[in-house]
Write a structure and sequence with these properties.
Organism: Phormidesmis priestleyi Ana
Cofactor: pyridoxal 5'-phosphate
Shape: globular
Helix content: 40-55%
CATH architecture of the largest domain: 3-Layer(aba) Sandwich
Largest sheet: 7 strands, mixed
GO molecular function: pyridoxal phosphate binding; transaminase activity
Pfam families: Aminotran_1_2
Number of helices: 12
Keywords: Aminotransferase, Transferase
Strand order of the largest sheet: 2-8-7-6-5-3-4
Order of helices and strands: HEHHEHEHEHEHEEEHHHEHEEEH
CATH topology of the largest domain: Aspartate Aminotransferase, domain 2
Length: about 400
């Protein structure tokens, strides 16, 4: 039986390796404290759940949900965006519901890339951005992110011959995994770059609300208010703790929305309409649940940074997201400072604490690990103390 060649680049996955390592640690009697997955442990707001529960008894919600039946959700998303960012959005032509924003970022390459076209991707970056390009037969040019540049790509470093073949650039700020925030000045630079070169600018924006200090983080459409080249992806997974409900949406350039809608119409319908009603309640209802989510992750961040300092592992204090991006100490044995997957496997085998190896997000992520703040401050402190004991024993 033949398996498609396009799957070949997707065969290796360090997160699958880590999942295997966690399973082996459990078999050896370890209690796992999993800081490797960015899945919020906070509950979905009660007013959202009550709307979804009520919908279960409404027969009108039991059938297929085609595009026209999502109109109320699209209107709610457009109005939410205009309230937050001050830019008008046409819910008919500039909004598309998605089964999580990952559906959009993975499928958009099918709509804008031909085999051999190039996608400009952040390195490190979110793994689904890579997978969608490979499935579309595209090529990847990694834009390396370094601390010295604030984990922003240097667009002037992209070779002209690469730019000539590029059809899309994918950004995502606040950034997973580095936690960096991009200023509006950078987005303006990126928009101008893409306008000059006929490139679609894609901004994956799941951490819209997850920032802890300073001004609100910008939308790329604030740098491209006419939506000339840009499309932005949103999700309710982080702001409203609805990851399992798989609700996202795209806002942006009407041609890109139309093309993505064609792909979506080929492969699926939309969510259960009761879930979309719950999403409308989230976007239009009281927002104190969002403020509570932010304050919860801020307190977890502070506890984790303090615990890391206690064990002698200094790390930058993130201003956004639900992660800590920590550079591995230089004095680790076994060359672990440059072999993050081996360090993470050894750590979970010995302590039960699971982290994400930086190499899983791209070659420029090597030498780092990502800690997800998905437990209480007390559990995070215990986990980091375990890491400290492990480091002492290894040294």
């Amino acid at each position: 039986m033949q398996i498609a060649d396009r799957l070949a680049p997707l065969q290796t996955n360090v997160f699958a390796d880590m999942d295997k390592a966690k399973t082996q640690a459990i078999a050896q009697g370890k209690t796992i404290i999993d800081l490797s997955l960015g899945s919020s442990d906070l509950p979905t707001p009660p007013h959202v759940l009550s709307v979804i529960a009520e919908a279960l008894n409404d027969p009108e919600t039991h059938g297929y949900a085609l595009f026209n039946s999502t109109q109320d959700f699209r209107i709610a998303a457009a109005q939410w965006y205009e309230r937050k960012f001050g830019i008008g959005v046409d819910p008919e032509t500039e909004v598309l519901p998605l089964i999580g924003s990952q559906e959009g970022t993975a499928h958009l390459p099918l709509a804008v890339m031909n085999p051999g076209d190039v996608a400009l991707l952040l390195d490190p970056g979110y793994p689904s951005h890579v997978g969608g390009v490979y499935l579309a037969g595209g090529e990847i040019y990694p834009m390396p992110l370094f601390a010295k540049n604030g984990f922003l790509p240097v667009l002037a470093d992209i070779p002209e011959e690469v730019v000539a073949k590029a059809t899309m650039m994918v950004l995502s700020y606040p950034h997973n995994p580095t936690t960096a925030i991009a200023p509006l000045t950078f987005f303006k630079e990126a928009v101008a770059f893409c306008q000059r070169n006929g490139i679609a600018l894609v901004h994956d924006f799941p951490y819209t609300d997850v920032y802890f200090e300073g001004d609100p983080v910008p939308s790329v459409l604030q740098a491209d208010p006419d939506k000339s080249v840009s499309i932005e992806f949103f999700t309710l997974s982080k702001s409203y703790n609805m990851g399992g409900f798989r609700v996202g949406y795209a806002i942006g350039n009407a041609d890109l929305i139309r093309a993505l809608r064609q792909i979506k119409a080929t492969v699926d319908f939309n969510q259960y309409r009761g879930i979309l009603r719950g999403a409308i309640a989230a976007l239009t209802g009281p927002q104190d649940c969002v403020a509570h989510m932010v304050s919860t992750f801020a307190s977890r961040r502070d506890a984790a940074i303090q615990a890391l300092e206690t064990i002698g592992w200094r790390s930058a204090r993130p201003k956004a997201t639900m992660y800590i991006w920590a550079q591995l100490p230089d004095d680790l044995p076994h060359n672990w400072a440059n072999r993050s997957i081996d360090f993470c496997k050894a750590l979970v085998a010995n302590t039960g604490v699971a982290l994400s190896p930086g190499c899983g997000f791209g070659p420029s992520g090597e030498g780092y690990v990502r800690l997800a703040l998905v437990h209480s401050p007390e559990v995070l402190t215990v986990a980091i103390q375990k890491i400290g004991h492990f480091l002492e024993a290894q040294r």
